[in-house]
Amino acid sequence: MISKGVRVVRIVLDYYDYDLANDLAFFAEFSAVRMGECANSLELGLSLGTKDLAQNNMITEKLRKARLLETSWLSFVNDGTDHATSETNPSYQDLLHMAHEEYRSRATDQKQVCENGYFIHSVATAFARMPRARRVEIQQHDDEGIFRKRAAPIRAGEDACFVSWIVQPMNWDTGRQWGLRTPHIDALALPGAMCEAGVLPQSLDIKLTSLPESNDFFNAKELRKLSMGAQQLKDIKIMLQRHRTANDPEFRLNPETAELNQLRDYIDAVLNTDSIERLSLDFECFFNEDTDYLIDLGSLMTFKVWGNLVEVSWSSVSLHQKEIECFFEQRRKPLESLRFSTVHLLTGSWADTLEVLRTAPTGYEVSLRGLSGAECTDLSDEENKRIFHKQSDDYWGTSLAEDFVTGASEKNPLTADETDQHDA
C-alpha cells in the first residue's frame, strides 16, 4: 500500500515453488508432511493442557482432521487411494486437488510478476511515491507471519481453512530442506532500482540464511547500479545467520568460491559510499570454529576511508591484526560503539589488537565476545572467562578486556604477568 506516512518497506522472500506447482504427487507429499507437523503442534498444545474445555475440544477436532488429511494425502502418494474417505467424510483428495490448483495459480502469478524485473521496478517506483520511506528491509523469515500461517488451522473449523494454510508460500530454508531451487528474486538489487526511479535509500537491512543461486544479479552492470543506489546509505546491516526453529536444525552453509566472491562483490558495492555512519556485518551461517573461516572481512574494511562511521559491529568474521590497524587509521570520526562477536584473528596477537582498539576516544561503548585465534587459542576456559566475560551479572557489566579498551583500566589483561592477573 502506497502512503506518504510509510517510513519502512519490508520485503519477505517467501516464495511459491514451480516444481511443487507442476507435480501433484510431489505437492501431496510436501503437504502431507506439513500437515503432520501441524498435527504434532496440536498434540503438543493438548499435552500442555488448558482449563478451557471448549478450547480443548476445538484443538482435539483440529488434530483429528489434520491426521485424516495427512493419512489421505500420503496414501495418494503411495498408491493413489484415499483411505481416509468414508461415507460421512468428503474426499480429502478433493481438498488436495483444490489446494494444488490454488498453489499452481499463485505460482503462475509469481512468475509473471518476477519476470523481466517487473517486481523490483514496481517496488522502486512505489518508494519514489512515498517521500518518507527511506529504509529497506529484506529478509527470508517473517516469524510473526509464519506463526499466523501455522496457527490458522487451529482457529477455524472448515476444510477450506486447511487449504488456505497449506498453500502459503515457503521460506528458503524449507525449500533447501526439500532439495528445491531458490527462485531468481532480485530484491537485493532494490537500491539500484530505486536510484533509477529517482530516490536513494538511507538505511539497508538484509537478513538471509541462504545465498541467491542466480548469477545474473551479480553481473558488473547490476553492481554499478547498486553502488550508485548506495550513495546516501547511512545505516547498513547485513546478517547471514543460521535459522533456528523447533523443526529446522542448525546448519552451516558451504558455498562455492564463486558464491563467496559474489557476496563480497555485493558487499563491496554497497559499502562504496562515504555516507555510512552505522555498519553491522554478521556471517554466522558460514562460521564454524572446527573448519576454515570462510569470510575474510579485512579487505572489505581497508579499501576506503571511513569519513562518517561512528558505529561498528562485526560478527562471525576473520581478520588480520594489520587490517584492524588499517581500519582504525582510516576513521575520520570517533567511534561511539564497537562490537566484536565471534571474531577470529588470522595473524597478529589479540594483546596488540586490544592496544589498537584502545586508540579510539575513551568512553565509547565496547563489546568483545567470543574472540578466537592467536593467543586465545591457548587460553584455558578459566582464563578466557576471566578476561573476556563480564565481571558482574548485571546488564551493564564489563570484562577486563573491555575495561582496558575503553580506558577504565590501564592494564592489558593479555600482557599482564600471571601474578598481576590473579591479583586483579
Essential attributes:
424 residues, alpha/beta, nine-stranded parallel sheet, 17 helices
Describe the protein:
The relative contact order is 0.08. 45% of the residues lie in helices and 12% in strands. The chain has 424 residues and is of the alpha/beta class. The C terminus is likely disordered. Strands 1, 2, 3, 4, 5, 6, 7, 8 and 9 form a nine-stranded parallel β-sheet that branches.
Topology of helices and strands:
Blueprint: E1 8-12, H1 18-22, H2 24-48, H3 53-79, H4 92-114, H5 118-128, E2 135-139, H6 143-155, H7 159-166, H8 172-177, H9 190-196, E3 203-208, H10 220-229, E4 235-240, H11 257-270, E5 278-282, H12 298-301, E6 311-319, H13 321-329, E7 337-345, H14 350-357, E8 365-369, E9 372-373, H15 381-388, H16 400-406, H17 418-423
Helix pairs in contact: 2-3, 4-7, 5-9, 6-7, 9-10, 10-11, 13-14
Low-confidence sequence ranges: 245-252, 418-424
Could you give a short account of the major beta sheet?
A: 9 strands, parallel
Anisotropy-based shape: globular
Number of strands: 9
| Helix-strand makeup class | alpha/beta
Strand proportion, as a percent range, falls in 5-15%
End-to-end gap? 59 Å
Q: Please work out how many helical segments DSSP would assign.
A: 17
Order of helices and strands: EHHHHHEHHHHEHEHEHEHEHEEHHH
Mean pLDDT: 81
Q: Determine Rg (CA atoms, Å).
A: 26 Å
Helix share bin: 40-55%
